[in-house]
Amino acid sequence: MKPTFLALTLAATLPWSAYAAEYRQIQADQSAITFVYQQMGVAMEGKFRRFTAQLQFDPERLESAQATVEVDLASIDTGSADGDQEVAGKTWFDTSAFPTARFVASRVKALGDHRYEATGQLTIKGKTQDIVVPATFAAQGQSGVFDGRFTLRRADFAIGQGPWAAFDVVANDVQIQFRLTARTGE
Amino acid sequence: MTPHYTPVAKTLHWLMAVLLFGLLALGFTMTDLPLSPQKLQLYSWHKWAGVTVFLLVLFRLAWRATHRPPPLPDHLPKMMRFAAHAGHALLYLLMLAIPLSGWLMSSAKGFQTVWFGVLPIPDLLDKDKELGDLLQTVHLSLNLLFVAVIVGHIGAALKHHFIDRDDVLTRMLPTRNLES
Ligand code: HEM
Q1: Domain of B69?
Q2: Fold held by A22-184
């Protein structure tokens, strides 16, 4: 291939891909998925250390937006080693049988003012629920940041059964917070 | 002159004796339990009772500062007097330091204390695993020392009663306020 031709091809594709501004690649080191719940009336925080996301998000072309987020449940950090071990067990996540939690967005709607709403299905421990996840999106050049939170009820996914099923010690509502930083694809 | 403690001092002494005995027993047993809702509940109760003891100690110290305890019997040699005062000072110090270390440990471990599930006690320390583990060791060590001092305290009281046959034990007992 002649160098001039190469340069021409590059010149033709570069501006186009910059325009498209489709955010696809999650920057793990600038992303976080955390959760907050009540234990004996006290707010407790935890996080997941490992998760992956496949993303196709262009604010200008929401109809083709896609997102799949997978969380490695064994990477949980509940704040204590005891807790981490406990929630891996059968009555909680049963991570040996159900290692990942998956959210697949089927539709993304703009609410204006950088606010969006993703409708999709959340699957944990073999149970699937339709959920709506609100998030803001702020683009800074090559990277964009999604920030959002939603509340799930752990009982809907059989998380915490048996002795943990009552909500007096560990509440049913769990607030999931996420911050996902994505870069535009090359 | 009455050789007895004031009724308030007596009430505080025995109320705290019961609470502290319960806290020690609860502390040593709850930590060995496997994780369960009961364990979390016991931890909360332990923390609530511990904070209560801390507040009671503050009140008790204020009471003691304004109501001098009856003097020690005259027959006590100087060394024994010193040992008695030092022992009591150490008990007060530990009754303050143990709940403080428990509170700071809870903060460092990221488990806030909410007194009786209602009143949140601010976390002075940020979450820090290593510091939390260190404070857990501090809490445990202070408690072991506390148990040793309590054993000495009870032993001394019994010695006064059965060997010296003085009124050091009886003047703290709930009844017998009439005797001179
Ligand atoms: C005078 C009051 C207190 C006494 C006598 C006491 C006594 C004890 C004892 C004996 C233990 C077992 C130590 C071990 O085996 O590691 C313990 C553990 C513990 N205490 Fe206290 N405590 C008091 C106050 C508090 C307070 C105020 C708090 C928190 C606000 C607290 C929080 C804890 C916690 C979280 C543990 C468990 C540590 C672990 O996870 O191993 N304690 N306490």
Answers
A1: 7-179
A2: Lipocalin (2.40.128)
Is the residue at B2 inside a domain? no
CB of B94 within 6 A of ligand 1: the answer is no
CA–CA gap between residue A76 and residue A124 (Å, rounded): 14
* Predicted TM-score of the model (pTM): 0.85
Cβ pair B117:A41 closer than 8 A: yes
Q: Of the candidates B86, B70, B41, which has an alpha carbon nearest to the alpha carbon of residue B173? A: B70
End-to-end CA distance of chain B: 8
**What is the total count of domains within chain B?**
1
β-strand partners of A54: A68
d(CA A126, CA A164): 19
Tell me the per-residue pLDDT of A25-59, one tens digit each, with 9 for 90 and over: 889 899 999 999 999 888 999 999 999 999 999 98
Which chain B residue has its CA at the smallest distance from A169's CA? B37
Is the C-beta atom of B101 inside 6 A of ligand 1?
A: no
- Whether ipTM tops 0.85, in short, is no
CB atoms B36 and A43 under 8 Å = no
- SS3 of residue A126 by DSSP: coil
Distance from chain centroid for Cα B128: 27
